[in-house]
Specification:
Elements lengths: L8 E5 L1 H7 L9 H10 L4 E4 L10 H11 L6 E6 L5 H10 L6 E4 L19 H13 L3 E6 L6 H6 L4 E5 L1 H6 L5 H17 L3 E5 L7 H7 L3 E6 L1 H10 L1 H11 L2
Parallel strand pairs: 1-2, 1-8, 2-3, 3-4, 4-5, 5-6, 6-7, 7-8
Amino acid sequence: MAPTPHRTALSVNLNKVALVRNTRHLGIPSVTRAATLCLQAGAAGITVHPRPDARHIRADDVRDLAQLLQEWPDREFNVEGNPFHNLIGCVRDLRQRGLPVHQVTFVPDSQGQFTSDHGWTFPQDAEGLKPLIEEAHALNLRVSLFMDAEPAAMHAAKAVGADRIELYTEPYAAAWGTPEQGAQLQRFALAAQAALDAGLGVNAGHDLNRDNLAAFAQAVPGLSEVSIGHALIADALELGYATTVQAYLDCLQ
């Protein structure tokens, strides 16, 4: 029997849906409706990044989405953010309510940061991260660390207790269509292989889109999950959620 081909999961980040909703007090567009449409279209999971200033996803959104995911037991809920801010309290609340959350992605962003723009640094961040990873494991959560594509850092990420890393892909996306594209793709492939060699799972995210995703998924070994928000939601404004999710799934084939 031929081996089953590796499949990369698509997790849809809904922050931008909440950002639009928060400009008015009407409750539209609905974050849970967007999640439902994406799941119905085949998305493997939902991602949110609740920041302390609640400028997009809010605490009640996280609870509402977790309640929704109870109806989709074969899908995953990934909550990302800075564990030194509000992330641990957020997922602990879900656990205490008996609500599903499968993965936490630790991201080293500041409270007022426009968007995530770098990964954790080792050995500098190791001492602070280790007890927080242990706390997440005590809540029975998979822990992914947001990392730059630096192969040498992957063993340190494993040593501190991470289960996966999420490659910060903005440098690859910025190089797309330029002479640097091939070099960046090779850099990310080497970083992913180093993570796999260290015993880590490999996720990726940030500025991946319909143009650059297929080449990335083909070149990067062992890619378990991509988390995509801004580009996917922008595409959905024109194409609708179902067509957009299917287009991204086609890129991952």
